[in-house]
Specification:
This protein is mostly beta strands. The chain has one domain: Rubrerythrin, domain 2. Helices cover 12% and strands 30% of the residues. It has two helices and six strands. The strands form two sheets. The protein has a four-stranded antiparallel β-sheet with strand order 1-6-3-4. It has a two-stranded antiparallel ribbon with strand order 2-5.
Length: 76
């Protein structure tokens, strides 16, 4: 089962999917160490977090999140 945590606006967070607790709008952050902002839809400051492993099963460590493994035939 995927670990879920609650975070507040202003916290420095890592990659993952953040779901607003009030309106349910989803935001995906793919960079490390970003400040979480108030929900632009409803101004709520609380989010439920699903770690990057929920989005990409090949992301297993913080280093993987900073330098994600290549997928498919991408040259990026």
């Amino acid at each position: 089962m995927t670990e879920q945590k609650t975070y507040s606006a202003g916290q420095n967070v890592g990659p993952g999917k953040y779901v607003c607790l009030d309106c349910g709008k989803e935001y995906t952050l793919d960079k490390s160490e970003q400040d979480l902002r108030k929900c632009p839809s409803c101004a709520c400051e609380e989010y439920q977090c699903f770690p990057m492993t929920h989005i990409r099963p090949d992301i297993k460590t913080p280093e993987d999140a900073k330098h994600p493994p290549k997928r498919g035939n991408s040259n990026l």
